[in-house]
Design a protein that fits this description.
Layout: E1 22-25, E2 38-45, E3 48-53, H1 62-65, E4 75-78, E5 82-91, E6 101-104, E7 107-109, H2 113-121, E8 130-139, H3 143-149, E9 153-156, H4 160-165, H5 171-177, H6 184-187
Parallel strand pairs: 4-8
Antiparallel strand pairs: 1-2, 1-9, 2-3, 3-8, 5-7, 5-8, 6-7
């Protein structure tokens, strides 16, 4: 079998598709929610997948979106097009928040919001411990696999520290650049290919 040594051939799977992986969108997507997105997949099973867009920041503080919520300088992003009237969060607080769902390593999804509020009020929670999302991204069974086969997403991994501390404005480009030389073409592509 002949090996393809084309330096510009893109490999869409860098890691197994599973809970905790990162989806990176291809550069010319016209989808307003997913254009140049970096998504954390928090659930992946036979019933479908759930994830959150990490790099579509909202300029309002969480306390303006959630009533009776303490002030915290934490990131809040558009998580995706599903249930945009809901707020979700990921965190590194582990079992300090009951009913948290472990995604991988020390990264958790959701849990008891009242406990989170108490921890924030006590000064225990720092900016890099929690991120909030308006809505979420969801895929029905086999939908995500189909989108990957159609070259809509690259599947890769990031550690929890990078997920919680990344610069949202440059996150998509940095993630592609870290995947190697082949992806620099994507990372440097103009948002509108007609502007080339």
């Amino acid at each position: 079998m002949e090996q393809n040594n084309d330096p510009f051939k893109i490999e869409y799977y860098h890691t197994k598709l599973e809970q905790g992986v990162i989806l990176v969108s291809e550069p010319f997507s016209k989808d307003s929610y997913f254009k140049r997105s970096v998504i954390l997949l928090t659930e992946y099973n036979e019933k479908g997948s759930i994830g959150f867009v990490l790099n579509k920041p909202v300029q309002s503080p969480v306390s303006e979106i959630l009533s009776d919520f303490p002030e915290i300088d934490a990131d809040i992003s558009i998580g995706g097009p599903v249930a945009t009237n809901t707020i979700h969060f990921i965190h590194t607080l582990g079992d300090k928040i009951q009913n948290s769902y472990k995604v991988f390593d020390n990264l958790y999804w959701g849990g008891n919001l009242e406990q989170l509020k108490l921890l924030i009020n006590s000064g225990f929670v720092k900016k890099d411990n929690v991120q909030f999302f308006v809505g979420y991204s969801g895929w029905s069974p086999k939908q995500l696999e189909r989108e990957i086969s159609e070259h809509y997403w690259i599947v890769t991994e990031l550690d929890s520290k990078k997920i919680m501390t990344a610069n949202k404005d440059s996150f998509w480009k940095e993630t592609l650049n870290n995947l190697g030389e082949k992806y620099k073409i994507w990372a440097d592509a103009p948002e509108n290919p007609d502007m080339n």
